[in-house]
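Title: Comparing notes on inverse folding

I've been comparing how different people in this forum approach sequence design from structure. To keep things fair, I'm posting one structure and asking everyone to reply with a full sequence. Here's the target:
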């Protein structure tokens, strides 16, 4: 059954599509959980790889949120009347 799930995951072009809908805090908390599980060990190689891939997707989502926040702050500072 595990091999079947792996084959289905490999065929899915977006196995972590749910990550795209996450807010920053949700993605960060999920990433912390992935890291904790990987650090604790006790999972198969296949599960470790799947966790690592999910962690990469979660980290990218967090980065998107942070980049967006940075851009908004820069725009707000640039729009201030006293900005030089």
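Reply #1:
Here's my take.
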């Amino acid at each position: 059954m595990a091999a079947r799930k792996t084959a289905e995951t490999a065929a899915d072009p977006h196995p972590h599509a749910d990550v795209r809908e996450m807010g920053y805090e949700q993605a960060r908390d999920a990433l912390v959980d992935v890291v904790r599980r990987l650090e604790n060990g006790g999972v198969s190689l296949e599960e470790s790889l799947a966790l690592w891939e999910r962690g990469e997707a979660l980290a990218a989502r967090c980065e998107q949120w942070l980049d967006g926040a940075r851009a908004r702050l820069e725009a707000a500072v640039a729009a201030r009347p006293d900005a030089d």
